[in-house]
Write a structure and sequence with these properties.
This protein has three helices and 13 strands, in the order ββββββββββαββαβα. The protein is mostly beta strands.
Amino acid sequence: MKLEVRGIEEGQPVPEKFAFGVFSEQDHMSFGPNRNPELVWEDAPEGTKSFVVIMFDPDVPSVAEDVNQEGKTVSKDLPRVDFFHWLLVDIPANVSRIPEGEDSDGVSPKGKEPGPAAFGVRGVNNYTQFLAGNPDMAGTYGGYDGPCPPWNDELLHHYHYEVHALDVETLGLSGEFDGNAVRDAMAGHVLASARVTGTYTLNPDLRS
């Protein structure tokens, strides 16, 4: 099975048009275009009944107290956890492409609705938790929201775009389901998978 994420080459930086946050000399970070990239996949195995799209960052600090704090850095040695940026399940077996900007085209303060969408069912990404304490941004973030790693993180972040071919038409998920729920529901049903990985940072010391 093959996956192409148009505009993102394996191991190369994710373009800013796909990012939730972009570098700013004045404020460290400003909102980006936040468009989902176009995904195209092929060679799904016989018996495929649906697809799942997952995008996640495995490099997110497990402790957030120093994140984006002036005069502090987030050590590259800090343990890291997965942060889900995009969850789309129950994509019909006859679909093999998601157009650019279809699931996100700009930052939506207070989030986007999860649930049925044009190409499947949206799950809830981890901006829901990350922005919960911000009164201007708090809400439920369904579908795609792109990279925005801490601007003071010593570690370059990696973004895994994945498509999984499943042997079931639906995972039976509804409501505000998250990435761990998707992984649990997929277990034992994955016929094939493909992945493209890009990188991103807002740390000026890593950008140069």
